[in-house]
Design a protein that fits this description.
The chain has five helices and six strands, in the order βββββααβααα. The radius of gyration is 18 Å and the shape is globular. With 154 residues, it is α+β, with helices and mostly antiparallel strands. The strands form two sheets. Strands 1-2-3 form a three-stranded antiparallel β-sheet, with no helix packed on it. Strands 5-4-6 form a three-stranded mixed β-sheet. The protein folds into two domains: 44 residues; 105 residues.
Amino acid sequence: MRCPFCGHPDTSVKDSRTTEDHASIRRRRLCGECGSRFTTFEHTQLRDLVVVKKNGVRVPFDRNKLAQSITTAVHKRVLDPDRIERLISSLIRQLETCGDHEISTRTIGEMAMQALSHLDAVAYVRFASVYHEFSSVTDFIKLIQQLDHDQGNG
């Protein structure tokens, strides 16, 4: 595994353990060149998925792209990293077992928003604002009012 800090092509595994849901393996790694430590996750892939974008273009599903979107949404929120990883793994398992190997970006976005709405309201609003391409404060207000209503506060 290449070091993400210095690019050295060989790193060593210092610790391996399964995640709580036993869906992936978490590995702590050490770079022998620069001494940096980092974590990787190893996941089982059930099938190859194809993402159908809004413009009809089909591209291979990229787990890292989904993970980055979720990570951006939860940035600076006080959430257990393992819980976030479980959420991402759960979303991917749902996609892999839904029956279709072609999944629309709309389906992926809706599933991610649903999962985030149960995890953290701020992360949900962040993700939704990008997914729905909010262009005004009114868009945020409407979403927050709907979220408040759905949670029984309105």
